[in-house]
Specification:
mainly alpha; 6 helices; 84% helix; elongated
Length: 131
Amino acid sequence: MSLRQLFAPALLAVALTPLAFTVQAGQHEDRVYDREHMVERMEERRQEVFQRAGLSEEQQAALTEIHAEHREAVQALQEEHHARVADILSEEEQQAVREAMREIHQEYRGERGHGKRGAHHNGTEEDSAAE
């Protein structure tokens, strides 16, 4: 087994990590960002990782294909999850849960001494003053 084959899974994980954050960021309604620009940056980074790793065109194509399949599977799973939650909670109850989670997250970040980062994450300076 070559070094490339040994390190390919780790390189793929490194290349896909920013995309996981993209998915997570998409769930924050109060955060404003340019999704198209972000996706473009992530693709550029993936290509840089592939080039630095010395992956062949075939390997790059295969990794790109399985990444797309993974992204579609995650999206389908998220949609199923949202549908199941909607069967249990009304829209108002779902909003209440999201708000409670946001509040707990802010409190937790304040306790851990991450006020500035939390303020940037939430996008308001008032939040950092409250922490």
